[in-house]
Amino acid sequence: MLSIIIKTGTKDRNVKEVALRLLEEAGDIKNIKDIGINRLMKISGIGRVKAIELKAAIEIGRRVYLDIDNIDLINLGSSMEIYQHFFLLFKDKKQEYFYTIYVDIKGKYIDKKCLFIGTINTSVVHPREIFKEAYLLSASGIICIHNHPSGDSTPSKEDILITKRIREISIIHGINFIDHIIIGNDNYYSFYDNDKL
Question: Does domain 2-65 correspond to CATH entry 1.10.3210?
């Protein structure tokens, strides 16, 4: 597949050899996404245009993967699994986006709802909106997930307070509050993992 994207080699290396050199540089095909254009261009056979095409192909793949409507989330107890499925919702966002993910009794994905865009505080993110959607979808569990555009995923005082309120109401309604995850720049904070749920 890399050979198809790269298209041509050099007079000293055919296209397959260039692709293999790229894989050697990355260590694993999954790591190619983390290699910048300048570093790609240091590989013999990959100029600026090919480097940009590679990055564009990766971005297209990410956007296709973002269509999660038919994905079963197998291990929703794992914050990493949740993060890997949903972090692209927040890529390059300059404001805070607050989503709730709804799942059935088996932990399978039902739907996602963006309930707020702006600066998170306890007055604008109201738990009633979260649970109204849960009832409409017949969801058995919820995952709250939002981003910090600053890149720092450390929970704010408001994050802690809203999480506590959602937790209290989830108990009353008998809906499992699985996690609240805050997305930063290539990092995240899980309330579940930190024993805050």
Answer: no
Tell me the pLDDT tens digit for each residue of 89-122: 888 788 899 999 999 888 888 888 998 888 655 4
Q: What are 191's two structure tokens?
A: 């309330």
| β-pair partners for 118 | 96
Q: 1: helix, coil or strand? A: coil
For 190, the token pair is 């899980």
- Which uninterrupted H or E stretch holds 31? none
pTM to 2 decimal places:
0.62
pLDDT, tens digit, 9 for 90 and up, residues 136-163: 999 999 999 999 999 999 999 999 999 9
List CB contacts of 148: < 8 A, sequence separation 6 or more: 96, 154, 182, 183, 184
How far, in Å, CA of 113 to CA of 106, rounded? 19
CATH code: domain 79-190 is: 3.40.140.10
pLDDT digits (tens, 9 = 90+) for 121-131: 544 677 888 99
Distances (CA, A) of 142 to 71, 152, 178: 16, 24, 6
Domain boundaries, the chain: 2-65, 79-190
Beta strands, E only, the chain: 96-103, 109-118, 141-147, 176-183, 188-190
Structure tokens of 93?
């966002």
CA angle 104, 75, 153 (to 5 degrees): 100
